Amino acid sequence: RPLMQMSIRRTAAAVLSALALTAVSGVVPAAGIDDFQAKVNKIAAEKGVPAPDVKKELLGKAGVTSEEEKEEAAKNALKNVSPIERIVAIDTDTIRAIKSRDGKLMFLVDNGRFAFLGKMIDVWSRKELTTIEDIADAVSHIDLARMGFKLDKVNHISVGAGPRHITAFVDPQCGWCHKLIAEINAKPELQKDYTFDFVVVPVLGQRSEMLAKKIFCADADDAARYRALTDGARSIEALKQKEECPLEVFAQTRVIAQAVGVQGVPMVISHDGRFERGKPRDLMAFLEPKPAQNAQAQQTK
Known about the structure:
Blueprint: H1 2-25, H2 33-47, H3 54-59, H4 67-79, E1 95-99, E2 105-109, E3 115-117, E4 120-122, E5 127-129, H5 132-139, E6 156-160, E7 164-170, H6 175-185, H7 190-193, E8 194-200, H8 206-216, H9 222-231, H10 233-237, H11 248-260, E9 267-269, E10 275-277, H12 283-287, H13 291-300
Parallel strand pairs: 7-8
Antiparallel strand pairs: 1-2, 2-3, 4-5, 6-8, 7-9, 9-10
């Protein structure tokens, strides 16, 4: 009997895991929820387990409205996802979230062929996105703290003494990165309000790899390393090197940058999570956006 009960529990868990995967992917079967419920009832009856409520699993429990409850629901859904058996790539550059007048959300692949209905979960922050505003905020923000990002785990240089941190992913040979640095240096008063954390990611070949390693292994403080980064390759090559320089943190910098979503340099993340791929056109507007500009930026992302 204990073995039978264990088998029943495992079967029930498998059925629920399938539903959780459906909920996470946001796919509602073409036959409709009622038909899907009938299929689930049949499978459950054959296995001798209670049939889960499909609508409750896919659409969420009534009364779950607070951010804490939504986050907990998202975590539970992710925990229950069955191990992946197969992945099919859908060729697309963009998926658009669309809100209809009745408040429903649909996700449309830009080839115009495929559409998804149901839930979307921000896997990075483990939060369910239930409104178009949630989605707009998620795609235009990166919460480094919630992702577990830590500066001491990456090759970085920090300058400034302000309470608000700006994280910039840069390559020693990147021209636009140097333009960003020059713009920051042109306004030294910024370092009173902000701390600029430059994460040095070698993405432009072997020479960048060598220069980034020179910065990481330099026997110098952040001010000297920053001056060398500002001045260019020759100054970086002239940095005195430590006799011993373990490279574990250096090696994982690129991996962490990829996990954050860095696709090119520079990439700049503001203290409130807003980010720009490339050098911000207007640095001050990026650092201190007006409320109307911030809302408009989120709508056009």
